[in-house]
Specification:
Layout lengths: L2 E5 L4 H13 L4 E5 L16 E3 L19 E4 L11 H22 L2 E7 L21 H14 L7 E6 L1 E3 L12 H10 L5 E3 L5 E2 L1 E3 H10 L7 E5 L5 E2 H12 L6 E3 L15 H7 L7 H11 L5
Parallel strand pairs: 1-2, 1-4, 2-3, 4-5, 5-6, 6-11, 7-10, 8-13
Antiparallel strand pairs: 9-12
Helix pairs in contact: 1-5, 2-3, 4-6, 6-8
């Protein structure tokens, strides 16, 4: 862990990873690769490493690696806006960017830990196993599915571990804008005195995982017993009514939900990660329940930018 590259390192999850790596490995050489399309330099205030301002899919940045050692790459860079309908752009940026990372890692004999997504599963109304993937609802999920297939072709060359993030929330998501978590958006509504707006009747459930647990799992992932793709959630589904209850507790408010009709026929009403494979590969278990994560987030970090 002496020479580390973090792509997407000023983004929500990437910045949390980069700063935690700096804390844990103060003597390491840490480089962030970031194009700042959906992030901000303020997420990296306090970062003391190097920064390359490039798009991952642009091969010109790879000359930086000539003559350098690399031990591990945390590949978090990606277009994550699920409303983007430009299929060619989504596939090019996400898949070709990952191809560049894998080729570089193979050359340097470096391990790769990368962000996959629960969007690879589509709509499944039961706890989801990794083998359920391959039926995504949108081009974002499809790009992540193809990334998983591409990653498998490198298993015989280097350690490659994919993490299928479920619904992540926590510090440094402010700059995601409309793509920030519903927990963040509902908290902002409630903090300004508004009733939280959720779909009728608030019983839709998601596996919401706190970013502090995501960082811990990501930094453990290279110790996986083998190259693989693993779910990363709490293993529990939490309803939006329960989220509003937790936010009311954290904020000291008593807002009742403002229910409205769901206009999206493709909406996922349920997500829950089966974490058994992940636990078998690394021994990881979440430290925070969704409720505990909400309380910690709102009370300590919510409006920090």
């Amino acid at each position: 862990m002496k020479n580390i590259l973090v792509t997407g390192g000023s983004g929500f999850i990437g910045s949390n990873i980069a700063l935690e790596l700096q804390t844990r490995y103060p003597e390491a050489s840490i480089t962030v690769l970031e194009d700042f399309r959906s992030s901000c330099f303020k997420n990296l205030l306090g970062f003391k490493g190097d920064l390359l301002a490039y798009d991952c899919a642009d091969k010109s940045w790879m000359s930086w690696a000539k003559g350098r050692k690399l031990d591990i790459i945390y590949h978090m860079a990606s277009i994550t806006d699920t409303t983007l309908l430009d299929e060619q752009k989504m596939m090019y940026d996400n898949v070709e960017g990952f191809r560049n990372i894998l080729d570089l890692a193979a050359e340097k004999k470096a391990a790769v830990v990368y962000a996959s997504s629960a969007a690879t599963y589509g709509s499944i109304d039961r706890p989801i196993k990794e083998s359920d993937a391959g039926n995504p609802n949108n081009i974002y999920g499809y790009s992540k599915w193809i990334m998983d297939q591409l990653g498998r072709t490198y298993y015989n060359k280097i350690k490659v571990v994919g993490l299928r993030f479920f619904n992540v929330f926590g510090p440094r998501e402010y700059y995601k804008g409309h793509a920030a978590s519903m927990i963040y958006q509902l908290a902002l509504q409630m903090q300004t005195g508004k009733r939280p707006r959720i779909f009728k009747w608030g019983e839709q459930k998601r596996d919401h995982i706190y970013v502090k647990d995501v960082v811990e799992a990501t930094l453990m992932a290279h110790k996986s017993k083998e190259s693989t793709v693993m779910n990363l959630g709490t293993g529990q589904a939490t309803s939006f009514n329960e989220i509003v209850d937790a936010l009311n507790e954290a904020l000291g408010t008593h807002h009742k939900p403002d229910y409205f009709d769901n206009p999206y026929p493709f909406y996922q009403n349920f997500t829950q990660a089966d974490m058994s494979h992940h636990e078998k590969m690394t021994g990881f278990r979440c430290r925070f329940t969704t409720r505990e994560g909400i309380l910690d987030y709102v009370r300590n970090d919510l409006l920090k930018k």
